Amino acid sequence: MTTKAAVLWDQPGTFNRYVDECCGVCCEHLTQHLIAAPFFRGRYVAMVIPTGFANQAYSRLLPGLRAASNRIERFVENGGRLLVFGAADERPGAYDWLPFEVEYRFEFGQRSLGFADGEERYAPILDGYDLAAVETDGFFPTHDAEVVAGTPGGQAVILRKAVGDGEILVTSTHEYPSAKFMGTFCTAERETLF
């Protein structure tokens, strides 16, 4: 088994350190320029895109994600895993680089969450948090994916989509995922070429 992730962002930050030092996951930092560069090759179990990727006040990642959308899809089809957090931006189309439809509504607040039947294996993402009051930055009113977790009122907060041999998790939880979850999500029998 191997444990390795890439965190995509403009520059290394606290999230990279969290994944590397607290979760025990070998973590590589990738920029929007690197993922869109045709010469770049890397091997990872998972790729992680932190909260705020579509908000230009926080990041310039979105154009790189759009430019690399085919490579991202191929990475997941070949067995890679992708964890995407909230866009933190009100403009539509923030997730148009994913290989399925996802629309997001930016609406920060605490939400009570429950996991869908059969999706409890993803519950460790929120280990240590009070499920009655989880900090979130929005929800997904329109999507072509399974709802992993949502509110009692039907707002989808964590989505899952199987793509080829891999999977994509999209979440608007505004908390660091647990170290236990990250260790599991970023571990597999092999790395996948990006």
UniProtKB/TrEMBL annotation:
InterPro entries for the chain: Class_I_gatase-like
Name of the protein: Uncharacterized protein
Species, as recorded: Methanofollis formosanus
